[in-house]
Amino acid sequence: xxxSLNWDLDSLFAGGINSSQLKTKLAQIKSAIATLGDLLDRWxxxxxxxxxxxxxxxxxQLQAIDAGLGQAGIFIMAVGDADIQNPDxxxxxxQLLDLETQAENVSGKLKKVLVQVPDANFTAMLARPExxxxxxxxxxxxxxxxxxxxxxxxxxxxxxxxxxxxxWSSHYDSLVAxxxxxxxxxxxxxxxxxxxxxxxxxxxxxxxxxxxDLLPAWEQAWADKEQLFADTLNxxxxxxxxxxxxxxxxxxxxEPLKDNRLSAQTLKTIWQVVDDNKQFLLDxxxxxxxxxxxxxxxxxxxxxPLNLPGSHLHHFTFDEAAEFIIQHYGEFxxxxxxxAKHAFEHRWIEAEDRAGKAPGGWMESAPETNESxxxxxxxxxxxxxxxxxxxxxxxxxxxxxxxxPLLRQGYAMNVAETASTFGExxxxxxxVKAAKNDAEKITLLNAKMDNPLAMFLNIRARxxxxxxxxxxxxxxxxxxxxxxELMLNAQKEAFGHDLSTYSPHLWxxxxxxxxDEPAFYNFPYVFGYLFSLGIYAKAQQEGNFEDAYIALLRDxxxxxxxxxxxxxxxxxxxxPDFWLAGVKLIKRDxxxxxxxxxxxxxK
Length: 603
Prior knowledge:
It is a single chain. By secondary structure, this protein is mainly alpha-helical. It folds into three domains: 20-162, Butyryl-CoA Dehydrogenase, subunit A, domain 3 (Up-down Bundle); 249-312 and 449-545 and 560-603, no CATH class; 314-435, no CATH class. The protein has helices at 20-42, 45-48, 53-82, 89-116, 119-126, 135-145, 151-161, 165-176, 195-204, 208-223, 226-246, 254-259, 264-276, 279-291, 318-332, 334-345, 382-399, 413-433, 438-448, 450-473, 480-494, 506-509, 523-542, 546-554, 561-569, 577-597, and strands at residues 180-184, 190-194, 349-350, 362-366, 371-375. The chain has a three-stranded mixed sheet with strand order 3-5-4, with helices on both faces. A two-stranded antiparallel ribbon has the order 1-2. Strand 1 (180-184) and strand 2 (190-194) form a beta hairpin. The chain starts with 19 loop residues before the first helix and ends in a 6-residue tail after the last helix.
C-alpha cells in the first residue's frame, strides 16, 4: 500500500494527548493571554502614534495566541474523533474551552480599545505597512467593539456561555448517545441500531422496503426523548436570543449574516433562485420514485442509492482514490494536485474503516505548522472518493492562505464551503465520465444529485424551520408538538408537498440545530454550493483559471462576500444571474439522468 490510511499526529504534538508538549503549549497560551490583557490595559493610542509599534506587537501576540489555540484544538479533536472512548480527551477539551473563553475576553478588550481610537488616528494606524494587510479585519473588530458591553459584563457572558450555549450543545451529544432504534437485520432478526447506524441505513441502505420500515422506527426513537431534545433546543436558543438582546438586537439573522460577511439581500436572492428553480429537482425525485416502483419518493428515498441491473460500481482502494483525485485535480490545477499529493504522502488523512471512530468527516488546519488534517471513514465507494476530494478542497484553500497573517485567514463558513465543493465537483464529474455503461452512469448521476437535493430542498426546509422556530422562541418555550409541526410544514413547503413521507423529528436528530457557534448552520452550505457552481461554470468557460481561483481564495477573509465576487468574478451577488449559471449545470445533469432513465420507466 502506497499511502497510509492513518494520519500522523506527532508532527503536531509528539507523545499523545497527555504529552509534555501539549501541556507546555496550553500553559504558554494561558500565560500569553494574561500578558496580553495586562498590555492592553496599559496601551495608550496617543503615545503610541504615529508608528504604533506597540499596537503591532499587541496584534502579533493576539494572532500567536489564536494560532496556539488552533494548533492545540485540532490535535485534541483529532485524538478524540479517532478514539471516541479515550477518557483523557474530555479534560483537555474542557481546558481548551476555558482558554478559548479567556482569549475571547482579551479579544473583546482589544476591540473596545480600537473603538476608543479617534477615526483619524485609526486611519493612520491602518496605513502602517505591518497593519495594512489586515486593515479589513481590524475594521471589523472595531465595528464589533462598538456593540460590546463593559468588560466585566462581556467576561461574565463569556463565562456563562460555558454553562450556556456551549453546555447545551455538549448536552445534545450526550443525549444522542442514549438514542437507540430497535429494528431488524437483513435476515429479519431483532437488532438495536445506534443513532448513527440508523441514520446511515435510513439514507443509504439499498433496499427500499428496509428504508420504509426503518423510518417510523427512527421517528419513534426520537419521539421517545422529544421533550429532552426540546428542552435542549429551547434553552440553547434562549441563551442566544438573550445574548443578542443584550447587545441591542432582536434580529436573530443579523449575527449569522455578519459572521458570513453576507448581506440580507444576497441571501434573499439565493432563496428566490432556489424556490424558482426547484421544480426540475422535484421532477427528478418523481423519476427516481418511478425507478423504485413508487408514485412519489418518501423522505427515506431522497438520498437513497440506485442499484440498477448492470451497474457494478468500481470499488476504490485508498491508493486508487488518491491517484484518481491527484490526476483529476491536476487537469484543472497543478497546484491543487500537488497539495493533494503532499497530503497523502505526509499522512494528513485518517481514513481507516474501524470501530471506535466518530462519524462524519472534517478538515481542520494547524496554523503553527501550516498543515491540515482530514478525518473520514473510507469504504471505497465513489461517494467516499468525492468526500475525500471535498475535504482536500478545504485543505487547498487553507494552504494558499498559509503565508498571510492569521487574521487574514479567518474566512467565513459560506466561502469555506466553496473550495471544498469545487474539489468535490471535479471528482464527481470525473466519476460520471468514467462510467462503463448507462446503468453505472445513472447510479453515479443519482449520487451526484445528493448535493443539489440537499441544498435546494432539505437545507431549505431546515432554514424555514429554524426561522419560524426562532420567531416563536422569542415569545415562549416551544413544545415538542409545535416543533414537529414547524418541521413538517417546512419540509412540505420546501419539497412542494411532493413526498409520500416526511421526518417531523428532524429537528431533534439533526446536529446542526444544536451547534453553539455559528448559528443558522444551514444557509452557508447553500451559498458555498451555488457559489462554487458559478465558479466552476466560469472555469469551464475560461480554461486556465488557476491563478484567478487562488487569488479569489486568498481574499476570502479580506472583504465582504459581495465585494469578493465583484472583484474576482465581476458579478453582483444580489442579482440572480450568477446563481442561475450554476443552476444550469445541475439542470444539465438532471436532463442526462432523465434521458438515460426514460427507457426504464413504464409509460
